């Protein structure tokens, strides 16, 4: 049986990179698969969080996911800390994972920066918790953006090691699903950095809460070169900012990069940017409107998460029981 699992941190706003790289695929996959999506608050505390801001962030991320098209009638949507199996399985899996594997994770190196000794242990073991998220549901497919590729390879290694260590065939090896023209959306200010919630410059990203004026301004100010757009994808080589804007257009319109260039090749950015902003506003405005409405109804958001947690536990707890038997905790 095919089962999808994915997660998102409830820190900061949902941005265009999250939406085009991952969430849109989640929305499509909820019909073709049994789909489980998680607001990963346990992951969020690997770096300091203000409790009141985190509490609000969990509800806002839930609202943003619902506004983007997740439907609790067609998928399970829940909050990670409400299902204790995640933390417990993470401990078990941390005994199968190897220090050397975790030491090679580029995201830990980036996030811990120069102060490696001062980073939390949780930031180091973060990918083990991510593996537990996936394996607690025996998920077979994991839709993510390109930046999660290494973490998913690790999840496969951990699943394999556990199976081998205990001579069982308990965990399927999860397949990353990294698809579409927008698996890695870059910052609007720097074509070599990924668009991210943690970028100190708000102008670097499009938030799903930005209104039409903010979107138009950010696209207008987006860094580009001075050349016109090429008429074929090969002409984007060595032009990361141009390639990024074209990829965003392709993803928003659900067409290929080649299609975008057939229509816009030869145009300068003075012409292309307003066209891009228009398409972006048309896609995002309905989502923003739904998001604003949903945020007012915290009782509904809490009900969705509580219902999702009950359904998630019903799948994850029997898996943990199998793990306990495999290890010898129970017979
Ligand atoms: P997070 O919260 O950083 O991002 C959520 C999803 O958005 C994707 N993404 C992007 N895609 C394209 N371009 C970008 N600029 C961009 N920025 C973010 C991410 O790849 C991700 O799919 N560790 C994960 C959360 C997680 C998880 C899991 C994912 C926890 N457990 C289990 C899958 C399975 C994270 O921090 O995602």
From TrEMBL:
One of its GO terms (cellular component) is cytosol. L-tryptophan binds at residue 133. It catalyses: tRNA(Trp) + L-tryptophan + ATP = L-tryptophyl-tRNA(Trp) + AMP + diphosphate + H(+). A motif ('HIGH' region) lies at residues 10-18. Its EC number is 6.1.1.2. It is an enzyme of class 6 (ligase). A motif ('KMSKS' region) lies at residues 194-198. ATP binds at residues 9-11, 17-18, 145-147, 185, 194-198. It is found in: Cytoplasm. The keyword Lipoprotein does not apply. One of its GO terms (biological process) is tryptophanyl-tRNA aminoacylation. It comes from the Bacteria. Belongs to the class-I aminoacyl-tRNA synthetase family. PANTHER family: TRYPTOPHAN--TRNA LIGASE, MITOCHONDRIAL. This is Tryptophan--tRNA ligase. The lineage of its organism: Bacteria, Pseudomonadati, Pseudomonadota, Alphaproteobacteria, Sphingomonadales. The gene is trpS.
């Amino acid at each position: 049986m095919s089962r999808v699992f994915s997660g998102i941190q409830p820190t900061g706003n949902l941005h265009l990179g999250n939406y085009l790289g991952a969430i849109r695929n989640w929305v499509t996959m909820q019909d073709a698969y049994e789909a489980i999506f998680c607001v990963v608050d346990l992951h969020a505390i690997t770096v300091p969080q203000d409790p009141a801001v985190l509490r609000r962030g969990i509800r806002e991320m839930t609202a943003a996911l619902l506004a983007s098209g997740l439907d609790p009638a067609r998928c399970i949507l829940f909050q990670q800390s409400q299902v204790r199996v995640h933390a417990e399985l993470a401990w078990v899996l941390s005994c199968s994972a190897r220090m050397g594997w975790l030491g090679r994770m580029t995201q830990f190196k980036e996030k811990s920066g120069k102060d490696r000794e001062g980073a939390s242990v949780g930031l180091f073991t973060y990918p083990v918790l991510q593996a537990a998220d996936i394996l607690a549901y025996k998920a077979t497919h994991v839709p993510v953006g390109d930046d999660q590729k290494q973490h998913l390879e690790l999840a496969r290694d951990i699943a394999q090691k556990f199976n081998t260590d205990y001579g069982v065939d308990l965990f399927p090896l999860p397949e990353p699903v990294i698809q579409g023209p927008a698996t890695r959306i870059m910052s609007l200010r720097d074509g070599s950095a990924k668009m991210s919630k943690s970028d100190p410059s708000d102008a670097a990203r499009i938030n799903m809460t930005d209104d039409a004026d903010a979107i138009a301004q950010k696209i207008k100010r987006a860094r580009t070169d001075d050349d016109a757009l090429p008429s074929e994808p090969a002409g984007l080589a060595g032009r990361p900012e141009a390639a990024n804007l074209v990829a965003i257009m392709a993803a928003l319109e659900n067409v290929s990069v080649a299609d975008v260039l057939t229509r816009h090749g030869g145009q300068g950015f003075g012409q292309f940017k307003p066209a891009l902003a228009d398409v972006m506003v048309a896609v995002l405005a309905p989502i923003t409107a739904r998001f604003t409405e949903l945020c007012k109804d915290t009782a509904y958001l809490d009900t969705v998460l509580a219902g999702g947690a009950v359904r998630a536990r019903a799948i994850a707890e029997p898996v943990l029981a199998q793990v306990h038997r495999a290890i010898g905790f129970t017979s």
